[in-house]
Amino acid sequence: MDIRAIAFDVNGTLVKILADDGDERAFRAAAHFLTYQGIDLHRYELRELYFQLLKEQLRTSPERYPEFDAVGIWRSIIEDHQTDFTRALPAARLEQIPLSLAELARGVSRRRLGLYPYVREVLDVLCERYPLAVVTDAQSAYARSELHKVGLLGYFDPVVVSGDHGYRKPDPRLFQLALDGMAVAAGNTLYVGNDMYRDIYGAREAGLTTVMFDSDQGEKTYRDCAPDYTITDFRDLPAILGLT
User: Fold this and answer.
1) Is the pLDDT assigned to residue 1 strictly greater than 90?
2) Cα three-residue angle 177-180-185, rounded to 5 degrees
3) Residue 27 near residue 50, CB atoms below 8 Å
4) How confident is the model at residue 244 (pLDDT cuts 50, 70, 90)?
C-alpha cells in the first residue's frame, strides 16, 4: 500500500454515542422552549410534526441517498406556527431559534458520548505522519460540537458532514470531498468505518482502501462486500500501515 492520508467515520468508529431522536423528553424540552417564543405545541404534537416533516424532506429529495436537515425542520415548524409574539422577536433572535432547538433536542436525547478505547493514542501517532479527515453521516447542528466535546475536532481537516450537503453515505461525493480537502487520490487513502454498507461499501466504491472497525454499532454485512482489513482494537491500525 502507498497510503498518504486517512479518513474516518465518527459515530460507532471513533465515538461511542447513544442518542434517541424520538425521545419524549427532547420534545417536551423543545415544547417548553417554544412557549417562550410565543408558540404553544404539546410535546406529542411537536414530535409528530417533526417526523412528518423529516419524512417529507427525504421523500422529496432528488438525492439517491438523501439526508435530512434538522435545523430546516425546526424552521418550518416555527414558520407554520408563529404568532404575533413570535414575529415581534428581534430578527437575529428569530434566526437562531431553529439551530438552538436542534442543539437542545440533541443534547436532551443524548445518553452517552465518549471515545472507543485507544482512539486518541492512535490518532496521536497517525496525525504525525498523515493528513486526517472525517466523513460522517450527521447533522451540521451538532457533529462538530460533539467532536469538540470528546477532544477530537483538531485532528481532522476537512470534517465532511452529510447534513451540510443533503446526501449521506454511501454517496461517493462525500468521500471525494474528503479527498479533495486533503489533496490526495482515492488509491492513496485509507478509510476506517464501522458500517459495512455506508462505510465500507461506500468507501470501496469511491476507490479507497477500507478498514472495518468491528464495534458494537453498525451493519456488519452487505451483500458480498468485504473490507480490505478488519480490526476490533484501534491499536491494530498502525500495524496495518506498517508503523509498528
Assistant:
1) no
2) 115
3) yes
4) confident
Q: Tell me the whole-structure pTM to 2 decimals.
A: 0.93
Q: Find cell 476506517 and name the residue.
A: 192
Q: What is the pLDDT of residue 228?
A: 97
At 146, which amino acid appears?
E
Helix crossing, 24-35 with 43-60: angle to 10°? Answer: 100
Average pLDDT over residues 39-54: 98
